[in-house]
Each structure stands twice: as structure tokens, then as C-alpha cells.
Amino acid sequence: MKKTFLALALAGLTLATATHAQTADPKTEWAAKVVALQQGPELDRLIDQITESSVQDLINTWGPKLDANVPKARQAKATEDMNAELKKYSEDTRKVISSKVAKVSTDAMVPAYAERFTVDELKQLAAFFESSAVKKYQAAAPALGNVFVQKLLEAARPDVAARAKQFDDSAAKIVGSAPPAGAGKPPAKK
Fold first, then answer.
1. Any residues with CB less than 8 A from the CB of 38 and at least 6 apart, and which?
2. Is 0.70 surpassed by the pTM of this model?
3. Concatenated DSSP letters for 140-163?
């Protein structure tokens, strides 16, 4: 009796595996693999950028309100409290965004890749993303991006500062006062 049950169970497992193999779409499987291979340091950086943008929106909204509504004597404490809340918000927001990656990848990106590429092309993309050169590139990309941004800021700083001074001069004529302290300074180094 045990042998018969075991044989039936194995036959059922074999049938289930064969059925899965027949119904599984290789294009979707390869698309899922390509999407998974792309998720590395660049994805983490994107999540950080989205989070920072959300935090900056809050700062832009609440910074002026803090300045206008909190007496000068309490502003240092209020700023400290706001910064603590912003830190919590940032951590929570990063977790929320990170938690949505798998679902969005599965629901949106896998079908998008499957629609745009053949199975052969998806296999080629998978091989590309699995290559050691691409893995090395993905690891180096954030640092390379920082080098580019730093050099771009250095190259643009004098022209941007000159244009900011022109704006300050024009704004002073329109508003009728001198530019605020610190205005017209070049962008800060990152």
C-alpha cells in the first residue's frame, strides 16, 4: 500500500512538473530574470532619490512655516524636533518604497519586457547583466556618477554664479532692495 501511494504521489508530482513546464511562459520567465538582474546599486540609488525628493517637498512646505510661526527663541528646538521627524519620515518612506519594488517589478516591468523583447533577446540581456563587466559597472556606477556631478558643478559654478548675480541685480530693481545675504553664490559642492 505504501509503495502504491508513493508511486501515485511521484506520478502526480511528475505530472504537475510537466504541466507547469508546458504552461509556464518562457518569455515571462526570462523577462523576470532580466528584471531581477537589473536590481542592484542603481535601484537603491533611485529609491534614495525618490525618498529625498519627498523629504525635500516637506522641507519646502514646512521650513517657511517654521520661520514664520515659531518665535526666534524656540526655532532651534523646533528645528531639531522637525529634523528628528524628517529622519523618521525618510526612513519610513524608504521602507515603503523598497517594499513596493517586487510587486511593481512583477506587475509592470516583467510584462513590459516580455512585450518588447523576444525570448532570444531576453536571454541575451540576461547574459549581458550576468557578465562580470556589467556587475563591475553596476558596483562602480554610483561613484562614477558622483565624479561626473562634482566635475559638472565645478565646470558650471562660475557661469551659474555670474547668472545668479544678474538675477539678484534684476530682482533688486524689481523689489527695490539689496539681494539677500548669500544670494548669488555658486551651488554647494556635493
1. 129
2. no
3. HHHHHHHHHHHHHHHHHHHHHHHH
